[in-house]
């Protein structure tokens, strides 16, 4: 799906006119290509203490980046990392934040700002809690100020999690890289030191077998491509009616196809049976199949309500139950479910859809503890406006407006959701449990 406005405001005469009229100026986003350097330019690490030192050492050592601890004149930074895990009072924020402020006007296009902080809990001294929670507000506001396709995201460490924990390192790499092009203004909490760093950052899913439902088109097809690119063997699942497209996807990723309606009572058993028979194991399940049947609640009918809940949430619950009781889904398994910002913020005409997607968020939170004993996780990804067949059906004017209602002033691409799914499915994300990561360009709606 193409965004004509984005193309117009980035070319020649129309670019000038848009600027003069003060119209939104969405910047083309850089997306990930294998082999691409992690950052094209230096990174400024601000903050003092052992954690800041450890982060700087990681970036300059294994990741081979040019790291500065103090802003240097005439350098255009590609990233700024604010290491704020050791702040104890809001005034501790002043020096690092103002140091970062000094370089914001000269960031490279598509730069990255990442905060590292600790979650505030009721046991904290009030000043400590204020400083920690202050980082959340700071990050969300800063992300709204960045331009040129730059993003700001934060990693929040729970008690006992060190900055070198696999999921902190994995999340830092994800947020710095172009894989997170459309993730903006988000704070991802790391709960534990579980997980492991991949042998290769380019192929983190090597040796893993992944099932993707609704893989024939749109976001699901992109997830299949992305997981395969990252090394996974992919089973593409979709309705029998989507057979031809699904086979094309399965062939493209050198995986296998399974024609299956996910609402079938034995869907979980059939998925497991197929994965074990064809590939010998099952490690990752991506619940992506989803439908909309929009109607105001006052006009709602069982025909519009029932299928949305059946596909978007009941099927996921039933499949998970089958996997969890099978004894064959126990080697650091990963479940990633597609939620939606509608399930968080609500959306007029989508009570059925939002009930199902809010349901997904509750489900992953309650499913994650059931998987923890096997080093497994369940998480959700909540896309905002993504350019797919689903959003192409939105009336043209509403669609134009919806695209601009986020800090990046454009819709995301299916691959943006897929990259986030791939990160949560990766070994490094083992300490991210029961969370929702939004892929919405920092949509103005919701928390
Ligand atoms: P899409 O309509 O383009 O594709 C959905 C796929 O799911 C289709 O291939 C369809 O055949 C398949 N499917 C539907 N019912 C199925 C069933 N019962 N069994 C098996 N397969 C089934 O949708 P999309 O835009 O790619 O969305 C993918 C997911 O992302 C959905 O869960 C959707 O709710 C979610 N999402 C999308 C957006 C967006 O902006 N496009 C925003 C938020 C959330």
From TrEMBL:
Signal peptide: none annotated. One of its GO terms (molecular function) is 3-oxoacyl-[acyl-carrier-protein] reductase (NADPH) activity. Its EC number is 1.1.1.100. Pfam families: adh_short_C2. It comes from the Bacteria. Keywords: Oxidoreductase. SUPFAM superfamilies: NAD(P)-binding Rossmann-fold domains (SSF51735). This is 3-oxoacyl-ACP reductase. The lineage of its organism: Bacteria, Bacillati, Actinomycetota, Actinomycetes, Micrococcales.
